[in-house]
Specification:
Length: 227
């Protein structure tokens, strides 16, 4: 439905997705209900564009820098409890960004912004998992980004049963790329510069669509001349 040539840079490739989404919606009035892509597309900025601005369900693994590789507990070991605005640690203790209940509601803003959630010192000091959780600090804390709710939504989508169907459909889309490289010999571009690449991509996409159309349209059987 669309094609966009970019430099081989992640940022540019991700940006081209948004360009094609908008162009397809504008040209054909077809906004997709869901989008499947690999982790390269799972940055917070991209998810915000897809989910909040375009209302598309993301079947995209989230890029997660909160995962630890030193054997200590990662962010994913903590459970987010949206109703009570807190994280729960593996010991079932809560991490909160405020522990006082202010009588003045003005002091508590519901505005989306980054927040740090902390466990209580009393809980962590006597905890059996302290060395595994926060060996170098008195308590464990987690930063929750302004759009963590969007990332949580993407995690929810990728954990749903539909994710398998979305992944299968995504892999099917990769077949034409393999065909372009192996059969049509497009593993290297012949034309120079961004405009050359754009032309070559567009011509390749036309060739792909014509090939596809031959499989969709029934072959016409030539009529036998009578007499
Ligand atoms: S150290 Fe604190 S935050 Fe970590 S598991 Fe124990 S009680 Fe929970």
């Amino acid at each position: 439905m669309d094609v966009e040539a970019t430099r081989s840079v992640r940022q540019a490739e991700v940006g081209s997705t948004l360009t094609m989404l908008d162009r397809t919606a504008e040209r054909f009035d077809i906004p997709p209900e869901w989008l499947a892509a690999d982790t390269a597309y799972g940055s917070e900025d991209n998810l915000v564009e897809i989910v909040l601005k375009r209302q598309i369900l993301p079947f995209i693994p989230v890029i997660d820098k909160g995962e630890r590789t030193d054997g200590t507990l990662s962010r994913s070991d903590f459970i987010w409890d949206d109703e009570n605005d807190r994280y729960l640690c593996p010991e079932g203790k809560d991490l909160r960004h405020r522990r006082r209940n202010y009588s003045d509601p003005e002091r508590f803003s519901t505005e989306m912004k980054p927040r740090r959630y902390r466990a209580s010192k009393a809980d962590c000091q006597i905890c059996a998992l302290k060395e595994q959780c926060c060996p170098n600090s008195e308590t464990r804390s987690l930063q929750r980004g302004k759009f963590e709710i969007v990332r949580d939504f993407a995690r929810f989508c990728t954990a749903s049963a539909f994710n398998e169907i979305a992944s299968r459909r995504r892999k099917k889309v990769e077949m034409p790329f393999a065909h372009l490289k192996r059969i049509l010999g497009l593993n290297r571009l012949r034309l120079r510069g961004p405009m050359g690449a754009k032309d070559e991509f567009t011509l390749a996409a036309i060739a792909q669509n014509l090939r596809k159309m031959t499989t969709l349209c029934p072959a016409t059987v030539p009529s036998t001349p009578s007499g």
